[in-house]
Structures are given as structure tokens and as C-alpha cells.
Amino acid sequence: MSVAADTPVRINPGAVGFFRVCYHPTMLPPILSALSQHQIPERDRLNLLDDHFALARAGQCPLKTVLDLTRAYTGEDSYSVWSVLAQGLGSVRVLLQEMAYKAGDEVVFSELSPEEVGLNNLYTQLALPVYEKLGFDPKPEDSNNDSLLRPIILGVLGRARHPDVIAKARKAFDAHYASVMETPEGQPQEKLISPDLRTTIYSLCLRNGGAEVFQRLLTVSLHFAFLSLFLFSSP
């Protein structure tokens, strides 16, 4: 079979086979072009990512090839695809952080390495168009995909230290804390963080805050823990 050089050829379309596909470098440019133009179905977009991250972990595919592939996912708006993308890039971040740590038993939180700065730039490139579309706060018209995707996007941009996301996370937590701690008993608590975003916002505030933020989070967590204990133990 002969095909034009610019025709994207995908092995295992629909991800129906239980095997990994390692593409020859000459086969990737048409696939990357089709990805960037959103011409590949969701299941195949997910499978391409999953295969390449798995092959990179096994040493069968250069990490640069995988990162080049991820750039074609700029503006990706599928929760399923982003769950694989975020997990894979998170593994790359852990690897870069471990490489930056000095040998020895002392725990050292070093400054970002140039490689991790580059990864943050990639995070922003991929996630910012989706964030601009979804926004920070949940909306009544959100689809199920939107509700599931938003925490991932906020987490990715938060790890990349995006100032708008971090500022809004802190503002949301401040309002949440005030509502929990200052609302009189028996009155409805307003301005609580949506349960869908609570873990993500807590994590962002912890990562970018200090001891005071930790104590406030601990106080809120204990408050809800005691409240839950009271509710479930009441006859």
C-alpha cells in the first residue's frame, strides 16, 4: 500500500488492539498536523498519548518525541485525554525534580531548573486556551466534561505558577474559610468552594502558601471532620 507523504497513518485506530504502537519518526509529522487541527477522534488522541508515555517509560521512545507530541494537544478539551496528558507530564515533572535534588539525606527544595521552567511553559501552552474557555468558577451551563476537566486544568496551571489561577485560588479559599468560621450555627454557609474544585484549590493554596495557610486548612478540615462525626453519630 502506498500513501502520500503528508497523509496521517494511524495504527490501531479506535484502540481496539491490546498493544503499543511505536511510530517511525517519519510517520509522526502528518499525525502531529492532524492532531493540531483536531482531525483525530478522541479515543485515538488518548491512545496516541498513552502509547507514547508508556514507550518512553520503557525506554523505547525518546522523551523529546513525547513532548513534541504533547504540543499538538494545545487547546485539547477532552477530560479523558487530559487525564492521560496531565498524568504523563506529572511523571516527567517528578523525574526532573529528582534529577535536580542533590545527593544525600538532607531535603533540599531547590529553585526550578531550566528544564522544569520549560515544562511549566509547556503546561501553560497546553492548558491556558482551555482555561480561557472554561473559566475558574463552575457555571450552570457546564457539561459533565467541563466539570471534570476544570480541576485538572486549574491544577496544571497552578503547578506552572500561573498568577491568575493562584490569585483566584487564594481568593476562593479566603472566602471559603470566612464562611466556614464566621457563619453563625444554623445559618447557611455561602461562598463555599465547589466540591468539584475543593481538593484542587486546597492543594494550590498549600503549595503556594506558608505556615498560616497550612493552619487555616487544618482548621477547616478539622471543622468538617467534627461536623461529619456529629451528623453521622446522631440518631
UniProtKB/TrEMBL annotation:
Superkingdom per UniProt: Eukaryota
Gene3D superfamilies, per the entry: 1.25.50.20
One Pfam family matching this protein: ERAP1_C
Residue ranges occupied by any ERAP1-like C-terminal domain in the UniProt entry: 10-219
GO MF, one example: peptide binding
Name this protein carries in UniProt: ERAP1-like C-terminal domain-containing protein
InterPro entries: ERAP1-like_C_dom, Peptidase_M1_aminopeptidases
Lineage, highest ranks first: Eukaryota, Metazoa, Spiralia, Lophotrochozoa, Platyhelminthes
Family: Belongs to the peptidase M1 family.
BP GO annotations: peptide catabolic process; proteolysis
Annotated Gene Ontology cellular component terms: cytoplasm; extracellular space; membrane
